[in-house]
Amino acid sequence: MKLEEVGLFVSLNQGLAINKTTEHLISNKKQDKFVLPLLRIADMLENKFTKFISTDVNKNVVVSPEDIIYTRTGQIGLVFKGFCGVVHNNSFIVKLNSKKIDKDYLFTVLNSTFFKNQALIKAKNSVQSDLTHSMFKSIKIPILTLNEQKLIAKIYNILTKKINNNNQINSQLEELAKTIYDYWFLQFEFPNEQGKPYKSSGGKMVYNEQLKREIPEGWEVVNIRDICSVTWGQCPDGENILSSNYNGNDAILYCSGAGDMRNGLLVDCQAKTNASRRYAHKNDILMSVAGSIGAMAICNNKISLGRAAAAFTPKENRLLYSYLTISKFISRMKDVSSGSIQKVVNDSHLNEMNIPYCKEIVNKFAIFNILINMEIKNEEQNKELSSLRDFLLPLLMNGQVTFKE
Prior knowledge:
The protein is α+β, with helices and mostly antiparallel strands. The protein is 32% helix and 22% strand.
């Protein structure tokens, strides 16, 4: 395998710096000439854009869907393509200028841990982590035959496409689940005895003094503790929170809070501990309750809970119902949380989590658990595919794994 500096094969354009000189090019809404979305890291991750740039902007910062975007500061090492707009100053536009490199292979290499690890090491040499033009161009990449490059890129694309398809399916499943939940438990249009929407078909509503609203006749008011048992996290001693490399017999994954709940539906713990005190188990619903309040995830294994996390264990067969019910209280939890230095949700705040409830309707809703179970299955498959992709890619690039003729 031959290694050469990537700068021999690409050119870089840095994104638009947002300052007094460029503020006239920016609008908070899409209008007139302000039609180019500003491609900031968080916006690209969520595919939602809130700022728009005028078409008068320098064309060097504008990308088409075929262009590659590489993040150079903040979250260093993220790679995007498929966007049309103006790249923010925290990213590079990477343009291929050599016929020795296949464009899809370049995108594959930029996504590899082999490349990212080099980028992170170089960026740390700055006072503030920042990957400069010269640093990026000095990163070395494997140079293979064009045929080998295309085969490697093809494998990467197949695995990535499957992961993206699963993500799209999960987004649709999540939207469907939320729609049905809102229809049944917020609008009270659950099926009546004739299978028709309850409220709009003349179902009787009565005013509830505790909730200060009308609810269906025969429904009661319950607290979140009536549908879930709650376990509050507790931090083990600091020296017992260990790295992800710890594999002792007493090691257990450790959920520190919101940071472990933001990479999908399932919790994604990075640390381990050997001094566990409070636990969450499979299909418990996790919520961050300190600092960044309101992040949620599903537990897919036994884990230890830090003080910034709590676990809600659904009673009976109510995973989806409990998950969506808790999610409806997130904004309220942020409002009632206390703490002058750091916002914290505690047991007393759960008193605010009262809901109209009918056991019969909730039991019928359990049929839709299939939606969240499908999401969990897809996400578990994505983790396996990502692990396979990350394991296989460097082996292919360094020649440890080769292709048959």
